UniProtKB/TrEMBL annotation:
One of its GO terms (biological process) is cellular response to toxic substance. One of its GO terms (molecular function) is oxidoreductase activity. Residues 1-17 form the signal peptide. Belongs to the class-II pyridine nucleotide-disulfide oxidoreductase family. This is Sulphydryl oxidase. Pfam families: Pyr_redox_2. It comes from the Eukaryota. The keyword Flavoprotein applies. InterPro entries: FAD/NAD-bd_sf, FAD/NAD-binding_dom, Ferredoxin-NADP_redctase_2. Keywords: Flavoprotein, Oxidoreductase, Signal. It comes from Aspergillus ellipticus CBS 707.79. Residues 27-177 form the FAD/NAD(P)-binding domain.
Length: 389
């Protein structure tokens, strides 16, 4: 009975010691965002049996896009189809959970041992806890309020030449955006297009010309060398004349959209496709509320390895972070990278806890043994004394 009591005491003590060093949470990791980066992180963590929940608000930057391109193995796949297939494949891992709800807030909490973990609350008020947070919350494009522009977003009007340029190659191209961004767009697209007009919409001001010259001193000569025309008239509307969804050549992978750009002076110009240069903003307020350091309106991950942010335990992946690349392959890479680093970081914590547990068990066993031996010697001595009476 004494031995059983001793072992039970040790087992109970050790269990409490281990549980107190690792927070007891609903999940190991909560991933916020169900786009390519979030799906990649979820897959990576599930494959090493990390209990991971991905929360998907149903908001995706590339949702309007006809198809994804430059995604090896999925070139030409519609984004919704890609996400659905990814979900199906990930569902075979029993530690992966997908919750179609939006996270409205995340709060850092501290357990009795001063170890930080997180509580996430959804829009319906349900709360979930986790040891780590991965933000794949994405960006939104700040599209000007020009009639017809938003309606055609991702459907012949795009911002990434690697994603959409090839399907409109050799067609009359328009550049939409501020003058300082024109040369950069030409450098990205001049191998695909020879008929280019930059519609700067009144931004070709002396100040912006100086700004462009500070980066490209010979910008005017560069544009002239590629026969790029600059049209600075104010745009009042962009009308779709033909939809590339219905007019396309699937053999040559070409889409034939046609648009009319209407100006304030009553004139108009016809173009087939456009590259844009519009600013972006964080889709979610969670990074700001968590206090993550920001770099040019994006979550700063430049000084922290493995997609870590300035907030311990919080990682940022995909478009929302600052590593400078915003496309599907990048999103998948960043999600995978964060998944690896999160897993190893938790493993180190668990290893340290195991070492502490081992040290604790050795010390506890020594103390219990000393007490047990002491008790037995005391009982033996009493028996000797009784025998001598």
């Amino acid at each position: 009975m004494a031995r059983k009591s001793l072992l039970y005491t040790l087992f109970t003590t050790l269990t409490l010691a281990l549980s107190s060093s690792i927070p007891q949470t609903d999940y190991d990791v909560i991933v916020v965002g169900g786009g390519p980066s979030g799906l990649s992180a979820l897959s990576s963590l599930a494959r090493v049996r990390r209990r991971t929940a991905m929360f998907d608000s149903g908001e995706y930057r590339n949702a309007p896009t006809r198809e994804m391109h430059d995604v090896i193995g999925n070139d030409g796949t519609p984004p919704a189809q890609f996400r659905a297939l990814a979900r199906t494949q990930i569902s075979k891992y029993d530690t992966a959970t997908i919750i179609d709800n939006k996270i409205s807030s995340i709060s850092p909490l501290t357990d009795p041992n001063n170890t930080t973990y997180f509580q996430a609350t959804t829009t319906n008020g349900t709360t979930y806890t986790s040891r780590k947070i991965i933000l794949g919350t994405g960006l939104i494009d700040l599209i000007p309020d020009v009639p017809g522009l938003r309606e055609a977003w991702g459907q012949g009007i795009w911002w990434c030449p690697w994603c959409d340029g090839w399907e409109h190659r050799d067609e009359p191209l328009g550049i939409l955006g501020s003058l300082p961004d024109v040369v950069g767009s030409v450098l990205e697209t001049h191998t695909l297009y020879s008929d280019i007009i930059a519609f700067t919409n009144g931004t070709a001001t002396p100040a912006n010309q100086l700004s462009l010259a500070s980066k490209y001193p010979n910008w005017e000569k560069q544009l002239a060398a590629w026969d790029v025309r600059v049209d600075n008239r104010s745009i009042v509307a962009i009308d779709r004349l033909q939809n590339g969804n219905d007019h396309r050549d699937n053999v040559t992978d070409q889409q034939f959209d046609v648009f009319r750009v209407r100006f304030e002076d009553g004139d108009s110009v016809v173009r087939n496709t456009f590259i844009t240069n519009y600013p972006t903003a964080q889709r979610s307020t969670l990074p700001e509320e968590l206090g993550t350091a920001m770099l040019e309106e994006k979550v700063d991950t430049t000084d922290y390895s493995g997609m870590r942010t300035s907030v311990p335990g919080v990682f940022a992946i995909g478009d929302c972070n600052s590593d400078g690349s915003t496309n599907v392959p990048h999103a998948m890479f960043s999600g995978k990278r964060a998944g690896v680093f999160v897993h190893v970081e938790m493993s180190r914590e668990e290893s340290n806890a195991a070492i502490s547990k081992r040290d604790f068990s050795r010390r506890a066993l020594e103390r219990q043994t000393e007490r047990a031996v002491g008790d037995e010697m005391e009982m033996l001595w009493k028996r000797v004394l009784e025998m001598r009476k």
